[in-house]
Amino acid sequence: MIKLFFMTTAKIIVFDLDGVLIDSEEANYQAFAYGIEQVGLPRPDRQTVIDLVGFRATTMLEKLGCPLEKIQETFNKYVQPFYLEHLPRLAAPMPEANVVLGELAQRGYRILACTSGDRRTQTAALKGIGLWDAIEKMQASDDSQFSKPDPNYMQELLADYNHQTLLHVEDSEVGIRMGNACGATTIFAEYGFGCLPEDLDADHRINHLNELLAIAD
Fold this sequence. Notes:
Elements: E1 9-15, E2 22-23, H1 25-38, H2 46-50, H3 57-63, H4 71-90, E3 92-93, H5 97-106, E4 109-114, H6 119-128, E5 137-139, H7 151-158, E6 162-170, H8 173-181, E7 185-189, E8 204-206
Parallel strand pairs: 1-4, 1-6, 4-5, 6-7, 7-8
Antiparallel strand pairs: 2-3
């Protein structure tokens, strides 16, 4: 599919992927737990891994105790291959994701993705669950020197757009901080992986993806 980008006034909605559009909890847990075990460390518990989703994979591995000198090798040799191999049975679209994205497109929204995951893994995930064609443009960790919560990360994604409306759907603290800093209307996905500290709030909270349609009118 050829994707074309034009500098035009638009309604933009930016999605995080893991925990927002992609139900990847099991895939992430299994892949990172496997990687950590391969460097001789005990298998981390599920919640420890899931709480880190939203950071770059290398940051996740560091926080899980992977030796610094082995982080990139562990990701390349173990985590990413495990994720890609087991993706078909461990990941799925969030309920009604195709319906919601289709309705947003009909309402004139340009649908973008801003993820902390790498491009190869996230492209495979979106294609595997049938959502790739709904995403006009994606910002991934290996596209940039920046990362969440740095607003430059999302601003690079938005550089081709002159937006009149900017919505940002996230399930992580770092993502919401980035969206707030970019002046987006932030929407926290309560059904996702993360939680917000008491000193941080989003403009809206949703408990199901289809609740987004009442906000994005």
